[in-house]
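Ticket #4471: complex job returned nothing on first submit. Input attached below:
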Amino acid sequence: MTPQDILNHLGERFQQYTLGSHAFRGDATVMIRHEGLLDVARYLKSEPLLAFNVLMDVTAVDYKTFDQVPFNSPSLTTPSPLPFFMTSKPVADEAPWQRHAGEDQRFEVVYHFYSILHRHRVRLKVAVMEDDATVPSLTALWPSANWYEREVWDMFGIRFSGHPDLKRILMYEGFEGHPLRKDYPVNKRQPLIGPKN
Amino acid sequence: MGAVDLGKFGFFTSKLDAAIGWARKWSIFQYPFVTACCGMEYMATACSHYDVDRFGAGFPRFSPRQSDVLFVVGTISHKMAPVLRQVYDQMCDPKWTVAFGVCTCTGGFYDNYATVMGIDTVMPVDVYIPGCPPRPENVIDGLMKLQVKIERGEWAGATGVSQRPEELAVPHTPNAHLVLRHDEPEGL
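Support reply: We reran it on our side without changes. The output follows.
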């Protein structure tokens, strides 16, 4: 199936859960409500036309500072003294890309699926509220979700209900906070030995 | 009767410390603590093109108890720091430490939650070899400076004080381009 076919197929079947979708350069992306995640995931795996038997990646995005353009952001008319790779790109006037989610939905959990049989992919995005950052775990369907979800919990503090062993995977015991959240201070360190900063 | 000049009788005299220092200088048993990309440059240095065997340092020992010099090669994270410290503590005196690459010297371009800002914050360091990664010539230069220290019998672990060079003590602000953008975030 082409990416657009996948989107049409899912859009018809899960109209009540779909927030938006787009196919861009061969990548199909579906944005769904978090209530529908388990239904959609089961369908993705069991439907023979889709047969997404590989969960390739689970990650998350924190949109806390999204779209907040700083007044002194570099632009083409004010050359930055920094090297080009440290300079953020000028922001276009009209944003070509939309989030399809409310302002209060701070996080998005992103799933990437692949079908070995059909050799097609789909990306699933689930919007998550800040105060109730919980989504159902997919470990029962794809065992590879286990460590991915632990990583997302570790880095973003999003809980996965039904996960068999939800604990930190990268950061050490005693680490406080979730370092990839936008409100984690850039320079804050929690060393195990050595001076505190 | 004054001091006898033993040189006349075919003997070579020296201080025992100098003799031991000379011997140690040419038999550097190193422990490579390789964690990151600097390891490739370390391997290039250790192989036959640059031939550190000339300096007696061609024989890496993978046990800290058998080694004299700890080469810390690559970025050290806060999770790894206790392990590194334990490896250092396991080595027998006298022992030397080489910070290989700018990540071990100052933290390099990392300035975040995960990275130790220079391993001299957790252990004494004798020789700093900056570079990202340092070229083999740079490493050999550091190795020769280390030989000088070994010959003199100096080691930073004796005092526990490491002296980071001036040029590596620069104010380290890779987030300078972010400072005006985000003031100190609230919470946490």
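The first strand of chain B starts at residue 29 and ends at 34. Closing as resolved unless it happens again.
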